[in-house]
Amino acid sequence: MHAIPLYKIFVFLIGINIGSFINVLIIRIPKKMDVIYARSACPYCNHQICWYENIPLLSFIFLKGACSNCKSKISWQYPFVELITGIISILLLPRVFTLISIVDYFFLFTTACVFIIHFFIDIKHKILPNSLNLYLLAIFLFRSIYFYPISYWLTGALVGALFPFIVTSAYYYIKKQEGMGMGDIKLFGILGIHLGPFGIIHNIFLSCFLGSIIGLSLIARKKMNLNNHLAFGPYILVVATFQIFYPDLFNKYISSLLFHM
Ligand SMILES: [Zn+2]
């Protein structure tokens, strides 16, 4: 058995602490609360959470998943997000450390963090906050200007934003119902910068496909009806996760499955 290198344990410990901060952002961004200075409190009894109740993963275990004051259950989302952020922080580590690979690590890791925050906020509140989209816009733009020709990222952005916008407007004109929110359309446009015109078309088709399968199965199981608004961001993000973090797997299996049938 190989011993786990010490630096990986160190990165994991930083990763679970960032995961803990991600949990704070998921709660506070939609409420427009201060994300740095406000103390954390139990949402049920307002009991202030002290430092030893705030240790990633460990506190959840020794508190047995309940508030120390009122014994209300603590959501599984907290340890889950902490653990998954810790795992991602190790998985993305480059094999060789160069300036480019370290910059790329921060690019990929912060993208993953924003995806996690976006995912949970959209499921809970059906919004994709502008502040998170702006961060993605900034890093995708910087990276794409450096690595790709303007024709790649600009057409990616235009296709990503205009195509869903036209479809949604047509849908609204015909059915007088909002199909897709502006947050989804902005996210498509921003992802288009990084994925390029073909990548973003793959994402649009696959996320709509995934969304309709899951939406229809929820309707069939009477968990929702046709008039419910479905949070669409999570589907876009799941597909984009495969495209950005597993591009070889995505191109080999998923996109060829869709376009060579
Ligand atoms: Zn409590």
Report on the structure:
Helix content is 70%, strand content 0%. The protein has nine helices and no strands. The radius of gyration is 20 Å and the shape is globular. It folds into two domains: 1-91, no CATH class; 98-261, no CATH class. It is mainly alpha-helical. The chain has helices spanning 6-31, 58-62, 77-91, 99-125, 130-147, 150-175, 182-220, 233-245, 247-259. The protein binds zinc ion.
In short:
70% of the residues lie in helices and 0% in strands.
Q: What's the helix and strand layout?
A:
Layout (H helix, E strand, L loop, with lengths): L5 H26 L26 H5 L14 H15 L7 H27 L4 H18 L2 H26 L6 H39 L12 H13 L1 H13 L2
Bound molecules: zinc ion (ZN).
